[in-house]
């Protein structure tokens, strides 16, 4: 799985492969985002608010994931 | 361990919190965005990501709360972490636990509170994601569900940092990440009888930078210093942020004398480089450096770090903006 394959798709994302060590954590995050979408809709929030909220979170997470993966790639050199 | 016992195991809980390496860290955008969203979506004036340390609560992110930390004794969240379920307080003035809290009788004048425990993978509650209002309020099941979902997102972000061991402000390794990798390098170096050197770096008068220009500027300075350091790195070098304004650079296959040259080059580059800042004019900072080559007499990584740190202290004492190299041992 790559960063640009996260759902929803991040606004800007490098096609970096997600390392095995992060995969479970990333998949949990994806599930949590899906649950948040359901909760926001169930609370009657407009689709634009839901979209904007989720976009904020997924873009932020994609940035963090990129930093983390690059650091892990470098750390693998020292493994 | 039994889940109920975890709630009573405060020593274990604090240890789990310390392992996250998040206390007293810089403002980070993901957490700021989450509290901003909580405020907007739940229409509350105050939202925080709170971490409950042994004797204090510290806010990793906060909106509507002026204090960056408070004593644990006055904290709502210290009660939240004592349970698995959310803590809901509809009217703080009617609850004897909180009616006379400084956070209720004084700013931000909390009247209602909803807190979701932040749980580590081991099961410890290290803090809470909180929404607070300045009027009595009933939080609906929909509000609680949304806040719980946001709390899961906070935990995801904390977990990402823990696994990746990266300082998200500077891109350097966290202290824990650096120590883990430095330990392996040290063992490898000693096993094969190679040379390796450690450089400790500390920004001079950094408190003054924060006090004069604000923490946002201070963070930009740290990012630029880290960026300068990283331009000199080889792929085999390790670069970590050990504390607020303290960094470490481990250089395998490098003698103390060679590391001294690198340190001096870095020192001069930092001193000569005006820090270009968003929201402010350029400022100049300097840094002090302590260098120590690995010696077989160092039994532990801690001993090696301490040797380099002693040299750093000598550089500071000697007037700052200088480098001190340890004598071979």
UniProtKB/TrEMBL annotation, chain A:
Name by which UniProt lists this protein: Uncharacterized protein
TrEMBL record, chain B:
PANTHER family named in the record: DIGUANYLATE CYCLASE DGCM-RELATED, REGULATORY COMPONENTS OF SENSORY TRANSDUCTION SYSTEM
Domain of life: Bacteria
Domain GGDEF: 194-328
CDD domains for the chain: GGDEF
Catalysis: reaction(s): 2 GTP = 3',3'-c-di-GMP + 2 diphosphate
EC number annotated for this UniProt entry: 2.7.7.65
First-level EC class: transferase
Protein name: diguanylate cyclase
SMART domains: GAF, GGDEF
Annotated GO MF terms: diguanylate cyclase activity
Alphabetical list of InterPro entries matching this protein: Diguanylate_Cyclase (IPR050469), GAF (IPR003018), GAF-like_dom_sf (IPR029016), GGDEF_dom (IPR000160), Nucleotide_cyclase (IPR029787), Rev_trsase/Diguanyl_cyclase (IPR043128)
Organism of origin: Sphingomonas faeni
């Amino acid at each position: 799985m790559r960063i640009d394959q996260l759902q929803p798709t991040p606004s800007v994302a490098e096609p970096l492969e997600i390392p095995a060590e992060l995969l479970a954590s990333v998949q949990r995050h994806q599930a949590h985002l899906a649950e948040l979408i359901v909760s926001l809709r169930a609370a009657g929030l407009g689709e634009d608010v839901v979209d904007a909220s989720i976009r904020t979170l997924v873009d932020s997470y994609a940035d963090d994931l990129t930093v983390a993966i690059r650091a892990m790639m470098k750390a693998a050199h020292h493994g | 361990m039994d889940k109920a016992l975890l709630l009573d195991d405060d020593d274990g809980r604090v240890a789990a919190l310390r392992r996250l390496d998040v206390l007293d860290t810089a403002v980070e955008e993901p957490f700021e965005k989450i509290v901003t969203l909580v405020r907007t979506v739940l229409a509350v004036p105050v939202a925080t990501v709170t971490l409950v340390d042994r004797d204090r609560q510290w806010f990793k992110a906060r909106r509507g709360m002026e204090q960056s930390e408070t004593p644990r004794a006055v904290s709502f969240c210290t009660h939240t972490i004592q349970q698995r379920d959310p803590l809901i307080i509809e009217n703080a003035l009617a609850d004897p636990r909180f009616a006379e809290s400084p956070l209720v009788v004084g700013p931000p004048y909390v009247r209602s509170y909803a807190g979701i425990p932040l749980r580590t993978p081991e099961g410890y509650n290290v803090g809470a994601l909180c929404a607070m209002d300045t009027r009595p309020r009933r939080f609906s099941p929909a509000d609680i569900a949304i806040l719980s979902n946001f709390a899961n997102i906070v935990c995801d972000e904390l977990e990402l940092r823990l696994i990746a061991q990266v300082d998200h402000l500077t891109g350097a390794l966290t202290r824990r990440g650096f120590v883990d990798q430095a330990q392996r390098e040290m063992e490898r170096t000693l096993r094969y009888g190679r040379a390796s050197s450690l450089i400790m770096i500390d920004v001079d008068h950094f408190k003054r930078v924060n006090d004069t220009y604000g923490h946002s500027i201070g963070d930009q300075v740290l990012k630029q210093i880290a960026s300068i350091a990283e331009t000199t790195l080889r792929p085999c070098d390790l670069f970590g942020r050990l504390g607020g304004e303290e960094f470490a650079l481990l250089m395998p296959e490098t003698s103390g004398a060679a590391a001294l040259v690198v340190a001096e080059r870095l020192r001069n580059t930092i001193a000569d480089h005006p820090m270009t800042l968003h929201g402010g004019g350029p400022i100049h900072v300097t840094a002090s450096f302590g260098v120590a080559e690995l010696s077989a007499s160092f039994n532990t990584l801690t001993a090696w770090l301490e040797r380099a740190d002693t040299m750093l202290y000598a550089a500071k004492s000697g007037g700052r903006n200088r480098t001190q190299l340890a004598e071979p041992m």
